[in-house]
Design goal:
Distance between the termini: 214 Å
Shape: rod-shaped
Helix content: over 70%
Number of helices: 1
């Protein structure tokens, strides 16, 4: 029985050793798969980091361009404000000049109407005097032509 016990123990030892070897091989294979997965993850992480760096670089460039564009727009805005102020000043000057010109034209028109009115009054008075002179002349002419015929 001792032999049987030794044989069973030896068989159990072989089976146990065989199971342990299978377990070790599975662990080694699992570790290789884990190592491959880790390497794959590391490669993908490196690629992702490179893509993120590229994306960050492009984003920085876009942001820089946007800031430059915003600065240029701000400069154009300032220029546009200055131009608008200058145009408003000129518009004010033109409006004042227009009013003065209009006032001068109105004043000249009123003065001209007044002169025309005075001229017409003088003309009426001159015409009345002329008619009076003509009437007196014709009366004197008729009186002087009648007087010699009456005296003869």
């Amino acid at each position: 029985m001792l032999e049987w016990s030794a044989a069973v123990a030896a068989g159990a030892w072989v089976v146990l050793s065989f199971v342990l070897m299978i377990g070790v091989f599975r662990c080694i294979r699992l570790m290789r798969k884990a190592e491959q997965s880790i390497q794959s993850l590391q490669q993908e992480s490196v690629q992702l980091v490179q893509q993120l760096q590229d994306f960050t670089r492009r984003s920085d460039e876009v942001l820089k361009r946007a800031e430059e564009a915003a600065a240029e727009v701000a400069e154009w805005r300032e220029t546009a404000i200055r131009i608008r102020d200058i145009i408003e000043q000129w518009n004010g000057r033109i409006v004042r000049w227009s009013r003065r010109t209009e006032d001068a034209v109105d004043s000249a028109h009123r003065a001209n109407e007044h002169r025309i009115q005075e001229t017409l009054q003088w003309l009426d008075m001159t015409l009345a005097i002329w008619k009076d002179i003509q009437k007196r002349r014709s009366r004197y002419a008729t009186e002087s032509t009648e007087e010699p015929s009456q005296g003869r």
